[in-house]
Design a protein that fits this description.
The complex is a heterodimer of chains A (331) and B (290).
Chain A: E1 2-6, H1 10-18, E2 23-27, H2 44-56, E3 60-65, H3 74-87, E4 91-94, H4 97-106, E5 111-114, H5 123-133, E6 137-139, H6 146-155, E7 159-167, H7 178-183, H8 187-190, E8 199-203, E9 208-212, E10 215-220, E11 236-238, E12 241-243, E13 251-253, H9 258-263, E14 268-271, H10 278-297, H11 306-314, E15 321-322
Parallel strand pairs in A: 1-2, 1-14, 2-3, 3-4, 4-5, 5-6, 6-7, 7-14, 13-15
Antiparallel strand pairs in A: 7-13, 8-9, 9-10, 11-12
Helix pairs in contact in A: 1-2, 1-10
Chain B: E1 2-5, H1 14-25, E2 31-34, H2 47-59, E3 63-67, H3 75-85, E4 91-94, H4 97-105, E5 110-112, H5 121-129, E6 132-136, H6 143-150, H7 153-158, E7 163-176, H8 181-185, E8 204-207, E9 213-218, E10 221-229, E11 243-246, H9 253-262, E12 276-277
Parallel strand pairs in B: 1-2, 1-11, 2-3, 3-4, 4-5, 5-6, 6-7, 7-11, 10-12
Antiparallel strand pairs in B: 7-10, 8-9, 9-10
The chains are: A alpha/beta (331), B alpha/beta (290).
C-alpha cells in the first residue's frame, strides 16, 4: 500500500520524501492541473529537479494534468504531457478523455492514472476508461462509502487509489460547477475552487464577514475561528435556520479505516494538499508513514494512536476531522 | 430551433408527474426527456410508468429520450441503468460514463448530457465516434466556448453527425454529492430520509446571511439559487444551437416555452426578474445577469 503525498513546491517534495512518502504528485505551473494557485507548482526546469530528487530516493513522481482542455488551447494540454514525459516522470494523472486518447496513441507505454476529476464512481465507468484508454489506476472520488469502495475493489482489475486525508470535497469531483457559478472559475475550466482573487474580508465590528465575488459566505463572531470561504462550507439560511447546509469546515481523515483499506487491496493512499506548506506535508507524511507501517507489520493489531490524531486534527480545517462519505452516517 | 423539455429534476408525486406530462403532450415541444437523474431512491414512477408516458408522448408526435442517473455508486443502480439502456424503443441520455460505456457496447446512439465532461473538439469527436448524436454541453460553458469548439476542423467534418443542445431555462444542476442536503436540512440521515424531498417541489432555497438566493437544495443535487434564463440570447443562437432545453419547474414552464418561441427572432424580449441569471452563456460568473 503506497503513501502518495502532495508537493506544490520543491521544498514540499523534499519534505514528503524525507518523511517517508512512497510517491509524490505534482502539477505544472499552468492551468492544466486542478490546483492552479499563484506561487505553486513546477515549471519545466524545476520539474526536472523534482524528478531527479524523487528518483534519487528511489521513489515515484506523478504529474496531474487533470483539468479539461480548452478548445483553442488544446495543444497546451498535449504540451504538458510531452514536457512531463520528457522530464522523465513516472505517472500521468489525467481526467479529459481527449488527453487520455493522446497519451495512449502517442506514448502507448506510459503509465496513466484516472484523475478523481473524471468522477468514475462505479464499475461500468471504470471499465470505460480501462478499455478505451488503458488506465492502470483509478483515483476514487470522495463520495463513495467504504462498502462501495469494497464492492469496487472486488469487481475491477484496475488498481484503486483513495483519498486518505486532507480537504473534504463533498461533491463528486469533476462535476461541481459551484465555483464557476459564483466566480466564473471552476476546477474543470480553471483548476481553481473558490479562488482567492474573489475573496474579501470585511470587519463589521460585531462580526468578521467573508465574501466570495460579493456573496456572503459566512460571518464570524469574535470568539469563532474564521475559515477560508470555500463556498460549500459557508453558513447560510434555509427557511430561517442558519447552519452549514452543505458541510462544516472540516477535513477528511481515514486513519480508522486503514486496516480495511489494506484488506481490500487498495493500492494507494492519497494525501490531499498541493497548496500546503512543506511543514504541513512533513507532519502529515510522518503520521501516515507510521500508520501504514503499523498496518503492514500487523494489520490485526492496528490501533490508531492518539498522538497521530492529535497531529492530524491540529493540521485540519476548523481543527475537525471526519471520516466523510466512507461512513454512511455522514450522508 | 427545436425545443426540448428536460427531465424533471425534483421529486414530484406520481399524480403531479402524470398531470404534468398530460399537459406536455399538448405543448409545442420537439423532444421530451423522461426519467430520474438525481436519486435512485425516488421511485414514485418506475421504468414501466415512464415507458407508458413515453408511448403517449410518441403517439402525439414528440421524440422521447430516456434520461439516466448522474451519480451512480451502487451495483443496483448500474443494474437499473442497464434496464433503461435495454428498453428497446427510445433514445437514451447518458449522464455518466457508465451509460456511455453500456450504450457504446450495445452499439446504440445516445445523447450526451451536461454532466458528461466534454470541453473540447477532441473529446467531442471521440464521443461522436462512440455513438453520441446530440450533445448538451456542460452548463458552465459559454456561447463563445461552444462557437470555438464548433469551428474546429474535427467538428466541421462531423457536424452532420450530431446536434447541439443548450440548457436554456431553469435552475441549473451544479453539483452532486454522496450526501443528501434535503435530508440534512431536516436533520435526517440519508438512510432515514423518508423521501422528504417530495415535500419540496422546487427544492429548498439556500440564502446568504444578507438575503441573496445562493443555491437550491434538491436531494443530493445542488442547483443554482437563481433561475437560468437565456430567452433573450435565443435570437443569437441559431447558427450554433439546434435545440434549447427548458428544465421543468412546478410553475409556468409552458408560459416560458411560449415566451421562448415568441422571441426566437428577437421579436419579444423579456425583462428578467432579479432572481434570474444568464452569466454562463455570456462568459461571466453563472449567477450574473446582463
Amino acid at each position: 500500500m503506497e503513501l502518495l503525498c502532495p508537493a506544490g513546491s520543491l521544498p514540499a517534495l523534499k519534505a514528503a520524501l524525507k518523511h517517508g512518502a512512497d510517491a509524490v504528485y505534482v502539477g505544472l505551473k499552468n492551468q492544466t492541473n486542478a490546483r492552479h494557485f499563484a506561487g505553486l507548482n513546477f515549471a519545466e526546469g524545476t520539474l526536472q529537479q523534482a524528478v531527479a530528487e524523487t528518483h534519487g530516493h528511489g521513489k515515484k513522481i506523478h504529474v496531474a494534468i487533470n483539468t479539461f482542455a480548452h478548445p483553442e488551447q488544446w495543444t497546451h494540454w498535449a504540451q504538458a504531457v510531452d514536457d512531463s514525459i520528457r522530464c522523465g516522470v513516472d505517472v500521468l494523472i489525467v481526467a479529459d478523455i481527449s488527453i487520455l486518447h493522446y497519451i495512449r496513441s502517442t506514448y502507448p507505454e506510459q503509465e496513466v492514472h484516472l484523475s478523481v476529476q473524471a468522477s468514475a464512481t462505479n464499475q461500468a465507468a471504470i471499465a470505460y476508461y480501462q478499455q478505451h484508454f488503458g488506465v492502470q489506476r483509478v483515483v476514487l472520488p470522495r463520495v463513495l462509502a467504504m462498502n462501495q469502495v469494497r464492492a469496487l475493489a472486488r469487481s475491477t482489475t484496475v488498481d484503486l487509489e483513495v483519498f486518505a486525508f486532507g480537504s473534504l470535497c463533498i461533491m463528486a469531483e469533476g462535476r461541481c460547477y459551484l465555483s464557476s457559478y459564483m466566480t466564473g472559475e471552476s476546477p474543470n475550466t480553471a483548476g481553481a475552487c473558490s479562488p482567492a482573487a474573489y475573496v474579501r474580508w470585511e470587519d463589521e465590528g460585531d462580526y468578521l464577514e467573508s465574501r466570495l465575488n460579493g456573496v456572503v459566505i459566512d460571518r464570524f463572531a469574535p470568539n469563532e475561528t474564521a475559515g477560508y470561504p470555500t463556498l460549500c462550507k459557508g453558513r447560510f439560511d434555509v427557511d430561517g435556520q442558519r447552519y452549514h447546509p452543505l458541510e462544516e469546515p472540516t477535513s477528511l481523515n481515514t486513519l480508522d479505516l486503514l486496516p480495511e483499506l489494506y484488506r481490500e487491496g487498495i493500492t494507494s493512499l492519497k494525501i490531499e494538499g498541493r497548496q500546503r506548506s512543506p511543514a504541513y506535508v512533513a507532519n502529515i507524511t510522518r503520521v501516515w508513514r507510521a500508520a501504514i507501517d503499523h498496518v503492514l507489520t500487523s494489520p490485526e493489531r492496528f490501533q490508531v494512536q492518539a498522538e497521530w490524531n492529535a497531529v492530524l486534527a491540529s493540521l485540519s480545517e476548523g481543527s475537525q476531522t471526519t471520516i466523510g462519505a466512507y461512513h454512511r452516517s455522514w450522508k | 430551433m427545436q425545443y426540448s423539455l428536460g427531465p424533471v429534476l425534483y421529486f414530484w408525486p406520481k399524480a403531479t408527474m402524470q398531470a404534468f406530462y398530460r399537459q406536455a403532450i399538448e405543448q409545442p415541444l420537439d423532444v421530451v426527456y423522461l426519467g430520474e437523474t438525481v436519486c435512485s431512491k425516488r421511485r414514485e414512477l418506475k421504468l414501466a410508468d415512464y415507458m407508458s408516458i413515453a408511448h403517449e408522448l410518441r403517439e402525439a408526435g414528440k421524440q422521447v429520450c430516456l434520461s439516466t442517473m448522474t451519480l451512480l455508486e451502487a451495483p443496483s443502480e448500474l443494474r437499473e441503468l442497464k434496464r433503461y439502456c435495454e428498453n428497446g424503443e427510445f433514445l437514451l441520455e447518458a449522464n455518466d460514463m457508465s451509460a456511455v460505456q453500456m450504450l457504446h457496447e450495445a452499439g446504440l446512439p445516445f445523447v450526451g448530457g451536461a454532466a458528461i465532461n466534454c470541453y473540447n473538439q477532441h473529446t467531442l469527436s471521440l464521443l461522436i465516434d462512440q455513438g453520441m448524436i446530440r450533445w448538451l454541453m456542460p452548463v458552465e460553458l459559454s456561447g463563445d466556448w461552444l462557437a470555438s469548439i464548433l469551428r474546429q476542423p474535427e467538428i466541421q467534418q462531423r457536424r452532420h453527425l450530431f446536434a447541439t443542445e443548450v440548457f436554456a431555462f431553469g435552475h441549473l444542476p451544479l453539483a452532486w454529492s454522496a450526501r443528501c442536503f434535503t435530508a440534512r436540512s431536516e436533520n435526517r440521515h440519508k438512510d432515514q430520509c423518508e423521501l422528504c424531498c417530495i415535500r419540496y417541489p422546487k427544492g429548498r432555497t439556500v440564502t446568504s446571511q444578507d438575503g441573496r438566493d445562493v443555491f437550491v437544495l434538491n436531494g443530493i443535487q445542488t442547483q443554482s439559487g437563481e433561475r437560468y434564463n437565456l430567452v433573450n440570447q435565443l435570437p443569437g443562437m441559431h447558427s450554433q444551437v439546434d435545440m434549447v432545453r427548458l428544465s421543468p419547474e412546478i410553475d409556468d414552464t409552458w408560459v416560458w416555452l411560449e415566451r421562448f418561441r415568441a422571441n426566437e427572432q428577437g421579436e419579444a424580449p423579456v425583462a428578467l426578474a432579479n432572481n434570474e441569471c444568464n452569466g454562463y452563456w455570456l462568459k461571466l460568473a453563472g449567477m450574473m445577469q446582463q
